[in-house]
Design a protein that fits this description.
By secondary structure, the chain is α/β, with parallel strands linked by helices. The chain has 13 helices and 16 strands.
Length: 380
């Protein structure tokens, strides 16, 4: 059998467990560590590409075990296949039909590794690929400004977190709201943050954990205190598109769909129902190809774009930064989770100056490789 340089020689899948400084809490629960998965694809010429699955059970029920099982099931049929930049979408579709549709984070990890190894092999930075492959053709990546998140907790803890965020030089603050303690508790937390950071734009993220009644109460309370958020991100249940539209009308503030949109069809439903003025693109929802399709729908409808993620290392976050910077047109960025991790098993990644993210220095692929001793050694 003839061996070509782009033939997949090896597929390696290993757990990637990274401790957090403290649990990352959202309305659906808290995660004490990033229990992710590292994927390595090695081509016949020795080039290696890396991808990361970051399942978040509190977000959509996916677990590390789900991601591992889905990815390991792909090992037999991937070995020996010839890949190319031109056929990466066909590979993504095949992976999806063979089980990736059941675990979006696994689908994402495979596509990340595939695109990394292929663009690395031809010496192209991933951000440039995301621009040129979809027609934007940017000569330089767009600038991104990330927020940093205040997770669930007490008002005093929220104020302390806001002070720490400002000390980092980060201007935008994202606040997790929703959950069992109710809107009065959330209002006190948001007010405590606003008192500490009155000039910071606030993104209030409910992760689909806020009821209609609680949403109305929180809107009234915020207005009574003179607090006008920059964005209300997925307060209501993911299928409550009518409620999301009503929330935007009642508040007069920009509403973003997150859990409501995991596919282009979902995005079209949001557009048809006028349920949101923005969409949060997360590669972990269904992979890179699905995210590109969602962006196309959002841009054609004139919706604003946000790039976000789960609890991800610098690897996956850098891929998302390359995606948004290459595509352009992203108003909001939520790429902060590497700052919550107590260890970094990788070299490379996006450059961060305060809240400003740059990927312009990346020469090929996504530019992130495992450090020596991280089970998978980086290629040269």
């Amino acid at each position: 059998m003839t061996v070509t340089p782009t033939q997949i020689r090896r597929v390696e899948i290993v757990p990637l467990d990274i401790p957090l400084f403290e649990p990352f809490g959202i309305s659906g629960g808290a995660q004490a560590a990033a229990n992710n998965v590292l994927v390595t694809l090695e081509l016949a010429d020795g080039t290696r590409g890396y991808g990361e699955a970051a399942p978040l059970p509190a977000y959509n029920g996916e677990t590390q075990a789900d991601a591992l099982a889905t990815l390991r099931a792909a090992q037999p049929w991937l070995a020996g296949r010839a890949a190319s930049v031109e056929n990466w979408r066909a590979f993504a579709t095949e992976f999806r039909t063979r089980g990736g549709a059941k675990c979006g984070s696994a689908q994402c990890a495979f596509e990340m590794a595939l695109l990394d190894v292929l663009t690395k092999q031809r010496g192209e930075p991933l951000w440039k690929f995301f621009g040129s492959s979809t027609g934007s053709g940017q000569a330089a990546p767009a600038q991104l400004e990330t927020d940093m998140t205040v997770t669930t907790g007490t008002p005093a803890e929220a104020a302390d977190s806001a002070r720490a965020i400002l000390k980092r030089g980060i201007r935008l603050i994202k606040v997790k709201v929703g959950g069992k303690k109710g809107p009065a508790h959330d209002l006190e937390r948001v007010a405590a943050i606003h008192a500490v950071a009155p000039d910071s734009p606030l993104i209030l993220d409910g992760n689909a954990g806020v009821s209609r009644a609680a949403a109305s109460e929180l809107v009234r309370g915020l207005k009574a205190r003179g607090i006008a958020p920059a964005l209300l991100e997925q307060w209501l249940a993911k299928d409550d598109l009518a409620g999301a539209r009503a929330l935007g009308e009642e508040s007069g503030w920009l509403v973003a769909a997150d859990e409501s949109v995991t596919s282009a069809d979902d995005a079209r439903r949001v557009v048809a129902e006028r349920a949101a003025g923005a969409i949060n693109i997360k590669l972990m929802k269904g992979g890179v190809a699905a995210a590109l399709d969602i962006v196309a729908v959002a841009k054609s409808a004139g919706l604003k774009l946000m790039i976000g993620g789960n609890v991800e290392s610098i690897l996956a976050m850098t891929v998302s930064a390359c995606f948004a910077a290459g595509q352009g047109g992203f108003k909001f960025a939520d790429l902060d989770t590497p700052m919550f991790l107590a260890a970094n098993p990788f070299d490379g990644g996006y450059a961060l100056d305060g809240g400003k993210i740059s990927v312009a220095h990346i020469a090929a692929g996504h530019g992130v490789t495992p450090k020596s001793g991280t089970k998978v050694s980086p290629n040269g």
